[in-house]
């Protein structure tokens, strides 16, 4: 019964996700129409032959009504074709795929470090609440919350690249080498993203852990003689995970779409820099494809977090089973 209800919920969310993707793509498409300048002129340059500009406009359907352009693009996406880039003429997916891979590596690496580290630091701060370890953890997190990514990234470059000469200051990835052999190029960008997201999750975990540690069942577990480690593992951690999932999901969604500044600081060729270039060049097919990719990731992360919360929370499972 619970599985059937969960499947129904997932299907409803997927239907809503499709509607969200259509709505977001329509809004972004409309917004690109109001950008100054002509895409064909931007692609060929200000001194291009007017006949060549008009031929390019015809080739990409820019001379057709806006609704016709959007429907043509949407029908292509439905069949797996994201169109061609206006400036380069290359298939959009072929062009953004390697950059999307770089962004995925950056965000997933940050997320893999974020989850265990935030639970460890947040729980430690709660256990030693208002004592020295709590202050050592809490004060830096408050400072990091107030610092934007470009400040954190710049400080890391100054310290680890310029000062200590441990790591490269920029992430200039070479296409003729494997990403594994260039893994050191991702270290400083990953730390930058980690610093800016870790603070929020640590503070959330700390608040939840403090509430759990003051619960009656934790008090009874201590009276039964359980060691502090067993109390944490059996009673605290399971009850901290569920409320923290939504916060982690929100930060993961931000990581997927908010890496533009970090990629710019380290000159990492990712989806953020590709999006900025596409907007400057009025490359509408690329702008729409990247928007769809980021929105789809955001929707997927939220869907997974909702399912996880329901699976881990017996009360929610019971509510859905009774519906």
Architecture overview:
The protein is globular. The chain has 14 helices and no strands. The chain is 76% helix and 0% strand. α1 (2-33) packs antiparallel against α13 and α8 packs across α10. The protein has helices spanning 2-33, 39-44, 50-59, 66-78, 92-127, 132-146, 149-163, 187-213, 216-223, 228-257, 260-266, 271-280, 284-312, 314-322. It is mainly α and 323 residues long.
Radius of gyration: 24 Å
Q: How confident is the prediction overall: mean pLDDT? A: 82
Secondary structure class reads mainly alpha
Q: How many DSSP H or I helices?
A: 14
Helix content estimate? over 70%
Q: How would you describe the shape?
A: globular
How much of the sequence lies in strands comes to under 5%
Structure summary, number of beta strands: 0
Q: H/E order of the elements?
A: HHHHHHHHHHHHHH
Unreliable runs: none
Described by strand count, sense and barrel closure, the largest sheet is: none
Distance between the termini: 10 Å
Write the layout of secondary structure elements.
Layout lengths: L1 H32 L5 H6 L5 H10 L6 H13 L13 H36 L4 H15 L2 H15 L23 H27 L2 H8 L4 H30 L2 H7 L4 H10 L3 H29 L1 H9 L1
Keywords for this structure?
323 residues, mainly alpha, globular
Short overview:
By secondary structure, this protein is an all-alpha fold.
